[in-house]
Write a structure and sequence with these properties.
There is one protein chain. This protein is an alpha+beta fold. The chain has seven helices and 17 strands. The protein has a single domain (1-332), classed as ApbE-like domains (T-fold, Roll), CATH 3.10.520. An eight-stranded antiparallel sheet has the order 2-3-7-8-11-14-15-16, covered by helices on one side. A four-stranded antiparallel sheet has the order 1-9-10-17, with no helix packed on it. It is globular and about 60 Å long. The termini are far apart. The structure holds adenosine-5'-diphosphate and magnesium ion. Magnesium ion binds at residues 172, 240, 283-284, 286-287.
Length: 337
Amino acid sequence: MLRYTWGLVVLFLLPSCQQSLEDIKETRLILGTVVTFTVAGVPEEVALDAITQAAAVMQGVENTFTTHGDIPNTVKIFNQAKAGEPVHLLGAVDNLLQQSISYWKQTQGAFDPTLGDLNKRWGFSGDKAPAVPLTKIEVQQSLARSGVAAIHRISPQTWVKDKVGIKLDFGAIAKGLAIDKGVEKMQQLGIQHAIINAGGDMRILGNHNSQPWRIAIRHPRREDALGWLDISADTSIVTSGDYERFFMYQGKRYHHIINPKTGFPAEQSMSVTVQAPTAMQADVLSTGLFILGFEKGLPLVESMPDVEAIWVDSHKLVHMSSGIKSKFHLLKDKKDE
Ligand code: ADP
Ligand code: MG
């Protein structure tokens, strides 16, 4: 289901070098966003079959983790369970929840998989875009219904909440996982050169007719790009931005990335782009680093091998981790030229 029309194209491909075999490009609606599959270097029927199978795998990931719609899943069962009631989660959910808790620790609580109640109340993922912020009291009520400390794995795959109303939300990590699973499927089918781009969250494979893939990164406030990267390896690039789902109220921007410490939209960043080996890692870290901001986030990025990040902070200043500075082609604001 496409919940919003704004902010779909976060990253896009710049016109690139001369091509031999035509790229095969297909779009599908999965995970509430437009997913673009680009496959290079194989005949059309091979590419189309791989795209169809990868899309089916990604739809399966959405069905397993979504908290929206009518399809039953164990995340929804857990969310509706009472305090003290043990819930048997699907293996994949059990697994992602454990990994999420480890990311919660790594990001000093910035990424929090138990914010489901608060996220629902803010309403950014609902069918109707919100127009008015929550009150402080509403936020406090919802924050009281969150917290990794209030959920427990009592045996393999079995979890229990010890506070009423705790809800899981994998919105900041499941899209990345879905992209990884889609790419895995394409690789099994022999695809070596491809991009899966889910609303700006990408995993990139191989190269583009022996040339690097040129990936542009959207500027959070401009029509043109912030800059670009030339990529010719298996890697992921994911952006979290305050322009994707937001509303303006009394001159202030309210968006969908919530700081668990305050319960209100995070204020340190306008966008954060993360490059990491997997889309899941890049997805969860882009959200976490957005909330942490450059100063708190940089030491975390520098401590992680193969992870790089680019922040546009709340003053529109660009900051980069050490490994990406020489690779990122920053475009100047036309007004500054
Ligand atoms: P997008 O979905 O636009 O790619 P993100 O990956 O940054 O953006 O994920 C944002 C989504 O994650 C929100 O819509 C919400 O469901 C959830 N979310 C918001 N704040 C947090 C947070 N602090 N920790 C974990 N999940 C969050
Ligand atoms: Mg994310």
